[in-house]
Amino acid sequence: MPDQIPVYISIGSNIEREHYVRAALDALAAWFGELDISPVYESEAVGFDGSPFLNLVVGVRTSLSVEELSRKFKQLEVENGRRPEAKKYCARTLDLDILTYGEAVGRMDGVELPRGEILKNAFVLRPLADLVPTVKHPICRKSYFELWQAYSTGQKLWPVDFIWQGREISRSVC
User: Fold this and answer.
1) How many other CB atoms sit within 10 Å of the CB of residue 166?
2) Cα separation of 94 and 110, whole Å?
3) Of the CATH numbers 3.30.70.560, 3.40.50.720, 2.60.120.10, 3.40.50.1000, which one belongs to the domain with range 5-170?
4) Which of 6, 128, 2 is nearest to 60 (CA)?
């Protein structure tokens, strides 16, 4: 069996959010088996006026290439109602992005690794820090927990109640 690479994937949705996040988790579980899943957060839209998003990060292990993963994720987005021609900052049913692919750095198969949003957006960094706090960012070599502790852009996000396949993924804070 080829080497299994750890890959972290961000999932976001602000149209029928729970439905499309569950659809993404179902597809990822069918493809990769066991998933490592961060808490689910609600966050304000960034870059445009829109409904709040649900965001989370999922970890998988795979022997698929970045190109194969990217193709599968784009197809899943389209199958779930995302329009490929839509502008970058707009409402969406489903958005899946490869955040990291092992320790890969640079452009691989058209994907910039690690994804720059890790250091820019709370809705990516916070769930990643929750999921793998001691893992180090491939470029700056600080743990995701350390990066989250130093994060200060003022972007707001909050944990939400979320259940998938009868499993409690996250809880809102009372």
Assistant:
1) 5
2) 20
3) 3.30.70.560
4) 6
Peptide linkage before 138 cis (omega within 30 of 0): no
Is this model's pTM higher than 0.70 or not?
yes
Cis check for the bond before 114: say yes or no (omega within 30 of 0).
Answer: yes
Asked if residues 135 and 143 have their Cβ atoms less than 8 Å apart, the reply is yes
d(CA 28, CA 37): 11
Give the pair of three-digit tokens for residue 148: 């989250």
CB 69 within 8 A of CB 59: no
Q: Which of 53, 56, 54, 60 is nearest to 8 (CA)?
A: 60
Distance (Å, whole) CA 41 – CA 73 = 21
- Would you tell me how many other CB atoms lie within 10 Å of the CB of residue 63? 10
- The series of mean pLDDT values per 10 residues for the chain, 174 residues long, is 89 95 97 97 79 96 96 92 63 91 94 95 96 97 96 89 96 80
State both tokens at 130. Answer: 């929750």
For residue 108, the Cα-to-chain-centroid distance in whole angstroms is 18
